[in-house]
Fold:
Amino acid sequence: MHTIDLRSDTVSKPSPDMLAYMQSIDQSLIGDDVFGEDQLVNELQTTAAKLFGMEAALFCPSGTMTNQIAIHLHTGPGTEVICHEQSHVFLYEGGGIAANSGASCLLQYGNNGVFSAAAVEAAIRKDDVHFPRTKLVCIENTVNRGGGACWDFNEIEKIAKVCQNNQLAFHLDGARIFNALIAKNENALQYGNQFDSISICLSKGLGAPIGSLLLGNQAFIYNAKRIRKRWGGGMRQAGYMAAAGLFALNNNIKRLEIDHLRAKQIEKQLTHIGGLKEILPVETNIVIFEMLNLGLVQKLINHLQLHQIKANHIGNNRIRFVLHLNQSNEDIARVCEVLSHFSI
Ligand SMILES: *Cc1c(COP(=O)(O)O)cnc(C)c1O
Structure:
């Protein structure tokens, strides 16, 4: 019996097709990307920028780096970022906003990681020597800790307006933006229009082994390249990884709907288990549910483990399942079967 890994979509490995593509690339296209000479990296950057209708893109080792570079360029010491208390940039990037950029956060709460334009407007600091200067609004779509929740695009447009009227930058942590596009039947170009910068991940549901892209205008990406180098993220023959990224963008977006259907399937099964408190609304490839107490969380995780299924406790008596392309219909059937045998 093989292990089914529901801990994260970051655990996904390249499919045989992707691996074959990586091996089939013309070696003459590979070069030193710090010199800008890797043609596959350049193609990946151009492809991603075009997809979102933005001027330029930069290939980076991780989504943490793309987010942190963007925040660094949009802010500075004594400035403030408006973001959600559950957001990756605040919670999971090692305190990078403070450590890398000297900025503080004004946090938003509730609603599964989503907040309103009115809340943003109310959070903007007045020009007063006591206050930090508000510089940036950062949102996450889909919201990881919000159970893969999608933003309402109308609200994004409204926040973009508020940002424009108040000279604030607007950054999208789009680690799973393609899940949102598929779930809401939206277009990447819509998003490129609203944001000053966008971070997208290739190594989550899209199945590439490594890599994220930062998108923005020419001047922004020119500066981003300098910060990437300073922080040790300049990569040399990165074209092999860029090939995986190109394969991911060209082949693995549409299939995300399969992960979304499987998430719904698991959600349905979960409604029957004992000890359940609530399931966050399932919109994409993430299922987050809360058990009545910590003992039940451990009991369920042990029960899954016994059947070679890995899942994460993410705190607050909550367990997270994440669907991705390394799982099969049989795997999902097994997960449901194992859940059906859980007794408290
Ligand atoms: C995974 C993720 C990132 C980037 O994470 P890395 O592991 O650094 O690539 C950023 N934001 C969100 C919401 C994520 O889920």
Summary: The pocket of pyridoxal-5'-phosphate is lined by residues 10, 62-64, 67, 88, 140, 144, 173, 175, 201, 204, 212 (CB under 6 Å). The mean pLDDT is 98.
